[in-house]
Write a structure and sequence with these properties.
The protein is built from 14 helices and five strands. The chain is mainly alpha-helical and 335 residues long. The chain has two domains: 213 residues, 3-Layer(aba) Sandwich (Rossmann fold); 91 residues, Tyrosyl-Transfer RNA Synthetase (Orthogonal Bundle). Helix 9 links the parallel strand 4 and strand 5. The two termini are 37 Å apart. The structure holds adenosine-5'-tetraphosphate (AQP). The site of adenosine-5'-tetraphosphate has 21 residues, from strand 1 and helix 1.
Amino acid sequence: MEKKREIVMSGIRPTGFLHLGNYFGAVRNYVRMQDSYTCYFMVADLHALTTLSETRDLKGHVRRVMAENIACGLDPDKVAFYCQSHVPETAELYLFFNMLAYVGELEKTPTFKDKVRLHPQNVNAGLLTYPVLQAADILLHRATLVPVGKDQEQHLEIARNYANRFNHRYGGEVFPEAYAFNFGEALAKVPSLDGTGKMSKSENQMATIYLSDSDEMIVKKIKGAKTDSGAAEPGAAMSEAVAGLFQLLRLVASEDVVSKFEADYQAGTIRYGDMKKELAAGMVQFIAPIREKAEAIRNDDVYLRRIMEQGAAKARASAAVTIQLAKEAIGLKYY
Ligand code: AQP
């Protein structure tokens, strides 16, 4: 008998253009997992509403995120690839989990505190309960594996809490524990080019490389990346900015090339201009085919509509089973 496949779930917010962090933290693993797991991947448009007060660009962003995922190799026929708002069961489960979520706990979530700092004028309840909606996304399919980047690790701990709380409060084993997944390796964190933090859709666009950047733009951004004046003495620790550049180089260059520049760094002879040239060439070679493919998909209305409808149907079939189990456990069943 065929072994039951583990269930995988993950999502990306349509808040802008996909970047290298989204690729190496998430999409690359979606593609690697699609043949051996039962996968649900979604465009988290409802999550986007927590920070977007202007939704004029939403449609374009949703289509772009879909197209870029597919251009990266995601096969909508192998997985359920859907828009979060097309699966209303998500909102139902979110409501159930809100009864298990404590305000004090949510207020302490670091991502909430960051968002309050960044958007003090828009501290809405949706922002506070973001991890609750995320738990609903994952547990709607009773997923156990969640391919995400390092920045999402804490949200998964929260999702495990809600799963356990639900099972404990209402009885039964409706929800499993879900864990962040990166094939046994540390979760990815693709650094920004300015040496501070991670690449991100919505912050410092010149420090983030997007999958839609032109060749010239990629070269320009890498040229402008922060460096330092080289190792102060042999064996000295790298600055955060230079360590980040090496991390990026490792994503697109051969081991020989990386080792050469590492040795130069240690010897104090590194020429950052040469390293940047190598990095830019590797990035251009990596991104150009994705960009071109995504552009064609993005403009194909008929195809995108078919993908969205097919994805929603698969996701809703799985969601209906979970909602039924959850309602039975809670006791929301009167005849
Ligand atoms: N720099 C990154 N390195 C590794 N993984 C990353 N992810 C995001 N940035 C990096 C992973 O990508 C998936 C989608 O996350 P997201 O939609 O929250 O992406 P974002 O770029 O972080 O988007 P925003 O809108 O700009 O969000 P904030 O404001 O939160 O930074 C996730 O798996 C994430 O781990």
